Amino acid sequence: MMLGHVVGLAASLAIQQQLAVQRVNIVELQRMLTSQRQVLEVS
Question: How much is the pTM?
């Protein structure tokens, strides 16, 4: 389920910023995911 969330958020950012999804700022994407309580790393 998390992968779908990441893909959807990345696509949304790409549309909003009128970019190819490959050009989405990864740091911004990670910040947004973290703010939505998504786990990005397992320690």
Answer: 0.83
